[in-house]
């Protein structure tokens, strides 16, 4: 599965951006889709994830209430809406895909980068103060 992330850019603190992650030519309706980020000098960290049905989401505490993940399986696209951006949100943002298996717990797997087999190339978000 090839993933293409887009939508990054420069925004002032308090502003908003929407990132997109597309899987052209591929049906990813059975995949949990996650967003991760890596800031300057930091390790990659979990941002949020959405269940393959779109009915469940899970967020890191640092973005809860500000970021929203959604997906459109008909368009093979997942979105990360980021509001009230802060300078500490500056990072390269990556989308990733995890093929769900029967009986697994979404909340136990969604936040673990090792669970994701497919990764996009990343898109840079810079938040100025």
Question: What does this protein look like?
Answer:
This protein is mostly beta strands and 129 residues long. It is built from one helix and eleven strands, in the order E-E-E-E-E-E-E-E-E-H-E-E. A hairpin with a 4-residue loop joins strand 7 and strand 8 (77-82). The longest helix has 4 residues, at 106-109. The radius of gyration is 14 Å and the shape is globular. The N and C termini lie far apart (36 Å). The mean pLDDT is 94.
Return residue spans where pLDDT drops below 50 for at least 5 consecutive residues.
none
Q: Hey, roughly how much beta strand do the residues contain?
A: over 45%
- Report the count of strand segments: 11
* Rg measurement, Å: 14 Å
Mean pLDDT: 94
How does the overall form come out from the CA principal axes?
A: globular
By secondary-structure content and strand pairing, the structural class works out as mainly beta
Order of SSEs, N→C?
A: EEEEEEEEEHEE
Main beta-sheet annotation: 7 strands, mixed
Question: How far apart are the termini?
Answer: 36 Å
Q: Helix proportion of residues, in percent?
A: under 10%
Give the number of helices.
Answer: 1
